[in-house]
Design a protein that fits this description.
The structure holds two protein chains of two kinds. Helices cover 68% and strands 3% of the residues of chain A. Chain A is mainly α. Chain A has one domain. In chain A, the strands form two sheets. In chain A, strands 1-2 form a two-stranded antiparallel ribbon. A two-stranded antiparallel sheet of chain A has the order 3-4. In chain A, helix 2 packs across helix 11. Chain A is globular and about 65 Å long. Chain B is mainly α. Chain B is built from four helices and no strands. The longest helix of chain B has 28 residues. Chain B is flat. Classes of the chains: A mainly alpha, B mainly alpha. At the A-B interface, helix 2, helix 4, helix 6, helix 11 and helix 14 of A face helix 1, helix 3 and helix 4 of B.
Chain lengths: 379, 121
């Protein structure tokens, strides 16, 4: 028996990289898969409160109502048992592929988020970013750009006029706003001097103005933050930019021919992407997993006397993860609040906002910040 | 046996797991749901009105124009990222060069703006 434990320990020790990677990916996948049902419930409840209704509050678990938290579970079971058919005019292969593409991209994109500060297990330091690239920033950017494929494929393969229009509009909108998005994030790269999200977050643990403000990206480049949040709504096809779905004119846009589990895979992908972009905003502009005025390094030093050296890093990371999720939740709340507060753009207005206002604003922001940073750092 | 793995390897693991989850959900729905097709159900859904023509029609050229403009400006953005990473090494030379580059692009941008390429009517 002791021999087995020894073998297992030795195996873990020599393959710590692989084991840690699997663990981190599993954690990120669990978060991604939980975001969709919870957000569906939040969205319906919040909409109900805004419209002075009650919303889903009946379905609970084991006889407890729990404010209707069982509703997403019931919905999933219902969708699972719905008839799953392919319309006869559709291009079958791409019709089946499109929701899978959307969901997979959502689930892969979330892996680029640093979930917490690194932990120490058995002498090995493990950082908590599942896909730990030194250009993690570009990875997230690339993944969010791939999101357009699922929508475009769904629109085209359905072979339905509404679906095609929805898919086309969505693609045109996503590629238009992507430029402003890239330019909005550009100043953050030269301000922090890195493409690595963990280094960026570490830089944000300092404080600004003699310790009054935390050194967050939102204070360093507020215009970038505003542009990025706007483009984030457009990239995820959420209201006020949801012309791809526009139920009043396009029925449901690219989703019109979809049903059962395929339909919910689109939502899984969409919510995972929403979470990923919200978490990216948090990491770049709001200090990620860092608590304001108390950096993770200080937190570990504070916790070390209470626990011992290694568990202290675990507890600190757990606090960091909670902080990250709390900050991300602010944006998820904003997504829902905007959906039920703002009217939808007209399509020409939408393209105008992206190309005529956001793009030049982002360019000016880049040039001005480059001059400011240049004067402050290079002279 | 080394403790670290290729940093790109987790992407492959995540991709395979994601494919299993999404494919599994599709397969489960296919296996569990009822199968009662009828001609009306399989037809194109356009609000119940008899379908006129197909969806394979000519599209507004505006979408094509948007795609072309996207390629132009997106390459610009990607190019600027290289400069942003090397901001401290290139110093003022980089800032001035990028200023000239952006300036040239702004001329082109004003041109397409004045020609109405960005107007959706």
């Amino acid at each position: 028996m002791e021999g087995t434990v020894g073998v297992v320990t030795q195996f873990l020790d020599s393959n710590i990289g692989l084991v840690a990677a699997l663990g981190k990916i599993a954690l990120a996948l669990v978060i991604a898969l939980q975001v969709a049902p919870i957000m569906v419930w939040v969205e319906r409840r919040q909409a109900a409160f805004i419209q002075r209704r009650i919303g889903p509050n009946r379905v609970g678990l084991f006889g407890f109502k729990l404010f209707g938290l069982g509703q997403p579970l019931a919905d999933t079971i219902k969708l699972l048992f719905k008839e799953d058919f392919v319309p006869k005019q559709a291009n079958k292969f791409f019709y089946i592929l499109a929701p899978i593409v959307t969901a997979v991209i959502g689930l892969v994109a979330i892996q680029g988020i640093p979930l917490a500060k690194e932990i120490v297990v058995g002498g090995h330091t493990i950082n908590m970013q599942p896909v730990n690239l030194n250009a993690g920033f570009l990875y997230l950017f690339a993944m969010s750009a791939l999101g357009v494929y699922g929508v475009a494929l769904a629109g085209w393969s359905s072979n339905n006029k509404y679906a095609l229009l929805g898919g086309l509009r969505a693609s045109a909108q996503m590629i238009s706003y992507e430029i402003a998005m890239g330019l909005a994030l550009l100043p953050m790269v030269f301000i922090y001097g890195t493409l690595d999200l963990q280094t960026m977050i570490a830089a944000q643990s300092d404080s600004l103005l003699f310790g009054v403000l935390p050194n967050w990206g939102i204070f360093l480049s507020p215009i970038s933050f505003v542009i990025f949040v706007i483009t984030m709504f457009a990239e995820t096809n959420r209201l006020p930019f949801d012309l791809a779905e526009g139920e009043a004119e396009l029925v449901a846009g690219f989703l019109v021919e979809y049903g059962s589990m395929r339909w919910s895979l689109f939502f899984l992908g969409e919510y995972a992407m929403m979470f990923t972009l919200s978490a990216l905003t948090t990491c770049v502009f709001l200090g990620g997993y860092e608590i304001p005025w108390l950096s993770q390094t200080e937190l570990v030093a504070l916790l070390t006397p209470i626990f011992s050296a290694e568990p202290a890093t675990w507890v600190a990371s757990l606090i960091g993860l909670t902080v990250l999720l709390a900050k991300t939740a602010i944006f998820m709340f904003l997504f829902v609040q905007a959906r039920f507060t703002l009217p939808r753009f007209r399509y020409d207005q939408l393209m105008r906002v992206g190309w005529v206002y956001l793009l030049p604003l982002a360019l000016v922001n880049v040039v001005v910040l480059a001059l400011i940073v240049g004067i402050m750092r290079l002279t | 046996m080394t403790a670290s793995i290729n940093p790109y390897f987790p992407i492959l693991i995540a991709f395979v797991l994601g494919l299993l989850i999404a494919g599994g959900a599709t397969a489960a729905s296919f296996l569990l749901g009822p199968k009662k097709p009828n001609p009306a159900k399989l037809d194109v859904y356009e609000c119940g009105v008899p379908v006129v023509g197909t969806a394979r029609q000519r599209l507004s050229v505006k979408f094509y124009l948007t795609a072309i403009l996207f390629i132009l400006f997106d390459i610009e953005t990607v190019f600027l990222y290289l400069w942003a990473v090397l901001f401290d090494e290139l110093r003022w030379f980089g800032i001035i060069e990028v200023g000239l580059f952006v300036g040239t692009l702004v001329v082109g941008y004003i041109y397409i703006l004045r020609r109405g390429a960005l107007n959706w009517d």
